[in-house]
Amino acid sequence: MTEGHYHLASVLLYDPDPALRHNTRSALLNIGFGDVVAVEEFGEFLDKASTGEFDLVLADARSPDGRTLSLVQDIRRNIRGKNPFVNVIISLWDTAPEIVETVINSGADDLISRPMSRTHILERVVRQVEARKPFIVTTDYVGPDRRQVPRGYPLGSAMVVPNNLQAKIQNKPEFAATPETIQAATQAVNDRKIAIYTEQLQRLSSALLLLSAGFEEMSDRNGVAHNMCSIAERLSARIEGTKLSHVTSLCDGLTDLLRNIEKSQAVLSVQERELLVQIPLAIQKACAQVQETVSVVFDIRDVSARLRRRRARLPAAGFGDRA
C-alpha cells in the first residue's frame, strides 16, 4: 500500500547522526508524510515527545544510557506524552537477540535494523496501518502483544487501542486518538493493572502464610512480604483519585502490616495471619467491578461508535425538550 493520506500524518524522528537523520527524513517525506520533525539531541527528542502530538515516532535506539527505550516505556505508562498509544518504531544497528528483546519489552510497536531504506521504512509503516498488533497489559508491561519472552501473564483480553496513524492515512476516524478515546483506553489499561495487582496480593498472601511456620523460611518470607508491599503501593497509586480511592486506606494498612512483619523477624501472630487473609480479600472485593470489566473486549472502534451516537443524540434531545 503506497496510496493513502500520508500528508495528514506527522512524524517525530530522532537520530543522532546528521547524515542518516537527513536521509531518513527525506525518505519519510518521499513516502508522503506531511510533517517530519527531525531532532539530533536526545534532550530535544524528550521534550518534543513529551509535549508534541505526533502520529508516529521513529527513533534510533542509540542514546545516552539507553534512554530511548526508557522513554518508550514512559510513553506507554502514560508518564510522558499526550498519547500513550502512539505508534513507535525503533531503529537499531545491533540486532543481537538480547538487544531485540529489550526493544520489544519496552513497548515499541516494531523495530527496523540499520541501515534502512525507504522501502524498509514504508513496510513498517504499512504494517502499523494495516495490521497493528493489539495491546496487552501485564504487571510490568503495556504495549503490543509481540514480546518474545513474556515476563507476566496478561489479565483481560487484548485491546484494540487508538491508532492515529491508521485514522489519518486510511481516513478511518473510528481509530482516531482523541482526548475521549485516549481517556477510555487509558482507563481500560488502568483497570487491567488494578485487576492484576489485586489478584497478585491474594496469591502472595497465601504464599506468605505458607512460609510463616518457622524461622528457617524467614528470608523467603521477607522477600514475599517486600514484593507484596511494592504491589500494594503500586495499586494505591493506581486508584488514588478514582472512584476506588477509598481502597487506598486498605492498601496503606496492608503496607504497614507487611513492613512490621519484615522488621519483626518473628513467627507471625494469630492477628497478623488473620489480617493477611482479610485485607487482600477486602481489597479484591472492593475492586470486584473492575475485575469484571477487564474480561470485556476493549475495541476503540466500539468506543468511537458510542461517542458518535452520544453526540448525535444531543441535538435531538435538546429539540425534543423545547417542543
Q: Can you characterise this structure?
A:
By secondary structure, the chain is an alpha/beta fold. The chain folds into two domains: 6-177, Response regulator (Rossmann fold), CATH 3.40.50; 186-292, Four Helix Bundle (Hemerythrin (Met), subunit A) (Up-down Bundle), CATH 1.20.120. 55% of the residues lie in helices and 11% in strands. It contains twelve helices and nine strands. It has helices at 18-31, 42-51, 67-76, 97-105, 118-130, 164-169, 179-210, 218-239, 248-264, 270-286, 288-293, 300-322, and strands at residues 10-14, 35-39, 56-60, 87-92, 110-113, 135-138, 141-144, 159-160, 298-299. A five-stranded parallel sheet has the order 2-1-3-4-5, with helices on both faces. It has a two-stranded antiparallel sheet with strand order 6-7. A two-stranded parallel ribbon has the order 8-9. Strand 4 (87-92), helix 4 (97-105) and strand 5 (110-113) form a beta-alpha-beta unit. Helix 9 (248-264) packs antiparallel against helix 10 (270-286).
